[in-house]
Amino acid sequence: MYNYKCPVCGEITTSSAPLVRIKCSKCGNEFEPLTPQAQNQYKGAYQKSVFDNGPSGRSRGLAGLLAIFLGSLGVHYFYCGKNTAGIIFLLVTLLSWGYLGIITVILSIITGVFMLSMNEQEFEEKYIYSLSTLPI
Ligand SMILES: [Zn+2]
Description:
Bound molecules: zinc ion
Strand order of the largest sheet: 1-2
Radius of gyration: 19 Å
Number of domains: 2
Helix content: 40-55%
Strand content: 5-15%
Largest sheet: 2 strands, antiparallel
Shape: elongated
Number of helices: 6
Structural class: mainly alpha
């Protein structure tokens, strides 16, 4: 059996014979299979140190530490390009310190632990490329 992963949606298309061109059964995207060398390179891209930059150019480890230590100021969201989320956290914390500040501190620590425990691909999908305005 041959498994081909769609580069757009991640759906696995299975075939009993090797194919030169695959049409994704889920999103309709047509793609060529990666050569074994390219597959190994792609895998290697996700097996680096937690502090190395991922394909998006951002470090998951740095994002996680920013969330844990400076998260109540929204710093990890600014770092990930989620500026609206960063401004929301910053304003909530600054305008209500002592009341809602404790909520942004706790949410940020949880987010930071998530960032450090998930893999690179999950991190980028959830915190950088997702359309969510405020991914926790
Ligand atoms: Zn697809």
